[in-house]
Specification:
This protein is of the alpha/beta class. The chain has helices spanning about 20, 25-40, 55-65, 80, 85-90, 130-145; strands spanning about 1-5, 45-50, 70-75, 95-100, 120-125.
């Protein structure tokens, strides 16, 4: 099993930006924890981050060709603005779990709407960095159930 973790704009700034909303861990620390989890569960993990919408779309499209079993996606602000990312998800057969470190529904009004949620298999928000592990676990359970 291969799983892709995609992080969108500004998530490379974890540990430096809005620590009250996002915590003090860095993206590198998060990716290391996820890699250890993947190794313990016996699946391959690929982590990528981009501040560019088109690059995220290309990675989503490529998931079909790369034999990826699932995607955990934190699209950052693109969650609320990108019809293109929504359409990319709808165009692939790979299940996508949408994650958010903060509870987007308890924040500013503009963050309450997700263009991704209708085409994702689920959304996990508000549990800090644990949302990624929870997203991975949900994909593992889905794979086990067939």
């Amino acid at each position: 099993m291969r799983v892709l973790v995609l992080n969108g704009p500004n998530l490379n700034r974890l540990g430096k930006r809005e620590k009250q909303a996002y915590g003090s861990f860095t993206l590198q620390e998060l990716e290391q924890e996820l890699a250890e989890f993947a190794e313990s569960e016996g699946f391959e993990l690929i982590c990528r981050q981009s501040n560019h919408e088109g690059e995220l779309i290309d990675w989503i499209h490529g998931a079909d060709d790369d034999a990826v079993s699932g995607i955990v996606l934190n699209a950052g602000a693109y969650t609320h603005t990108s019809i293109a990312i929504r359409d990319a998800i709808a165009s692939v057969q790979v299940p996508v779990v949408e994650v958010h470190i903060s509870n987007i529904h308890a924040r500013e009004e503009f963050r309450h709407h997700s263009h991704i949620a209708p085409v994702a298999i689920g959304q996990i928000a508000g549990f800090g960095k644990d949302v990624y592990r929870l997203g991975l676990q949900s994909l593992l359970l889905r794979q086990q159930k067939g």
